[in-house]
Amino acid sequence: MLLPIFEDIPLADLNTLRLPARAERYAEIHSPEQLIKLIERGDLATQRVFILGGGSNIVLKGDLNAFVLHMRIPGHMLATELDDAWIVRAGAGENWHEFVRWTLDQGWGGLENLSLIPGTVGAAPIQNIGAYGVELADRFFALEAVDLRSGRIISFDKDACQFAYRDSLFKQQGAAGRFVITAVSFRLPKDWQPVTSYADVASYLEQNGIDAPTPRDISDAVIAIRSRKLPDPAKLPNAGSFFKNPVVTQAQFDALVRDWPQLANNPQPDGTVKLSAGWLIERAGWKGRNLGPVGMYEKQALVLVNHGDGKGEDVLRLAAEVTAAVEGMFGVRLEQEPVLV
């Protein structure tokens, strides 16, 4: 059976900022074999290819003169059990949060700090998602991806993925757009230890009288915290954290903290200091402030929201204004987290 290919498909309902755009061609991919068949037939050779996951980390500037491949590959399973860990595998189209909760239902801890992050399993390694003291790279085992040039399935281990802060090989020139992730495997330790270093998580546990938290306790804490701070994209369109937390040298931090003693920060193992982008944006006067139909969320300055009829150009204008305000006040330049398409 031939894979259905559609033309001139609206994408507003397929991105969490609900920005209007249309795809010249569109197909849903439910298996690696479907993707390989498209390559073999030459369907992907004549125009740009764009890979769409949950649409939670993109800013659509406008219509896409591209073949949009919507990754819908399902499934999750215990791939193997080691002496010290469970190796769990999931299809690229699986909803990330639902997958995390499934692992917890099986009694396998490790991903709980990453609860309620929007998007799909296949998109998670690209961004090296992270929250509350844990990054995907900390639990990553391997992934499989189809090479759009050769049509072959290639396996990548952790080193090959070149993970960094909100970054990976798959965002770099030469690899971005070439490899389509079809499945991801995670290493979940049997000797599980809770990560409660973030104040919000520790405070939640203390307030609820939880002295010895389980993985599900941590997940529940993260869900409660995120639900309190972040808007539900289904009710108020957004792409989650819009800017990366900037990383500065110790010397830069020392200079900043002289003028801003309350500057929120997180020292890094390499001697640099990670700053809170939300704190910087709020002090620059943009928390809860709108620019046309878009604005920075009133409860969390790091989140850019669409109040109803915003377009890609509105988002980019606001992002530029916020970036300029923060740089003018602190001398720190913010970097946008969602991918501009």
From TrEMBL:
Cellular compartment(s): Cytoplasm
Active-site residues per Swiss-Prot or TrEMBL entry: R166, S241 (proton donor), E337
Keyword match GTP-binding: no
Cofactor: FAD
Catalysed conversion reaction: UDP-N-acetyl-alpha-D-muramate + NADP(+) = UDP-N-acetyl-3-O-(1-carboxyvinyl)-alpha-D-glucosamine + NADPH + H(+)
Family listed: Belongs to the MurB family.
Pathway assignment: Cell wall biogenesis; peptidoglycan biosynthesis
Record Gene3D superfamilies: 3.30.465.10, UDP-N-acetylenolpyruvoylglucosamine reductase, C-terminal domain, Uridine Diphospho-n-acetylenolpyruvylglucosamine Reductase, domain 2
SUPFAM superfamilies reported in the protein's UniProt record: FAD-binding/transporter-associated domain-like, Uridine diphospho-N-Acetylenolpyruvylglucosamine reductase, MurB, C-terminal domain
Protein source organism: Viridibacterium curvum
Coiled coil, from the record: none
Residues annotated as domain FAD-binding PCMH-type: 18-191
PROSITE patterns noted in UniProt: FAD_PCMH
Keywords attached to this entry: Cell cycle, Cell division, Cell shape, Cell wall biogenesis/degradation, Cytoplasm, FAD, Flavoprotein, NADP, Oxidoreductase, Peptidoglycan synthesis
Function noted in UniProt: Cell wall formation.
The protein's Enzyme Commission number: 1.3.1.98
Pfam family, one: FAD_binding_4
Name of the protein this chain belongs to: UDP-N-acetylenolpyruvoylglucosamine reductase
Highest taxon of the lineage: Bacteria
